[in-house]
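Support case: NAP complex. Customer-provided input:
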Amino acid sequence: MKLLIIGASGVLGSRLCNDAVKKKWDVLGTYCSHEYEGLSYLDLRDKNSIAEVFNFFKPETVVLAGGITDVDLCESKPGLAKEVNVDGTFNILKDIRSRGARLVYVSTDYIFDGKSGPYGEDDKPYPVNVYGRTKLEAEGLVKNAMKDYLIVRTAQIYGADPLSRNFCTKIINNMRNNKKVYAAEDFYCTPTYAGQLSASIIKLLEEKKKGIFNSAGSDFINRYEYVNKISDIFGLHKELIQKVKLSDLNLKAKRPRLSGLKVDKLEQETGVSVYGCDEGLKMFKEDIEL
Ligand SMILES: NC(=O)c1ccc[n+]([C@@H]2O[C@H](COP(=O)([O-])OP(=O)(O)OC[C@H]3O[C@@H](n4cnc5c(N)ncnc54)[C@H](OP(=O)(O)O)[C@@H]3O)[C@@H](O)[C@H]2O)c1
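Agent response - structure generated as follows:
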């Protein structure tokens, strides 16, 4: 399998890169602004950089795990969010189609409005922020352009993250530095261990699955419960955790309050094991302590 991973300097992409290499697949990963040894440069906004990577590597399968993932940044810079997440997806579709390659597009539970999560694959999307709208628009482009597309939706990823971009890593770093952390008791999700997500993408590829699959953790919990679990597993001081309401956080982008994803389809059709936070956070801790 010749696998190109766009966004291999990110949390999911870097994990998937390592896991696919362990399977002896021929893998090339890309970075955009954070260079890592062994990764090639690709900016989804730059058609020349896309052509260069595709012509050099000639991928059979492409996983698009890159883009602007900072929800508040998308809200303050909607032009940038569209340029990368929507136009960037469009930019790779031509090369993928002309080579007859497969595409795995990684999407999000933020395409839903958060009134009645966790969501199944067939629930009706209705994004409430710019990030969610760009991801839904990109899903639409993928569906229109490809017959055998695979869209893998996920939620609240945690995993090894040297740049401290994801929520879980920020919480750990802040608490280790004795800073208070604020956790909303009315904001629910299904946190997802990057190792489980990566394993499920590999399984879906091996089984040549098509269509939409959710891959997320099995716990539907609020941020206050989640931060307490992080604190338990990482041995952090709980007095630093401040229970708040989502509205107290004054976040730039509106959040889907009852978000998260159901994973029955993934479990039934692939037999992938789905973990809760206790198990996933323990594995994450082992990963970063190796
Ligand atoms: N994080 C979550 O909780 C979450 C939840 C649901 C769905 N998702 C989806 O899951 C996927 C992976 O998320 P993640 O958290 O692993 O991402 P991440 O850690 O934030 O990393 C983002 C990746 O995208 C790359 N990237 C950014 N701008 C780019 C551009 N213009 N061209 C090409 N690559 C670019 C980054 O490269 P550089 O760093 O080198 O610039 C990095 O490799 C994304 O599609 C995201 O929408 C994430």
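The chain has a mean pLDDT of 97.

Case will auto-close in a few days if no follow-up is received.
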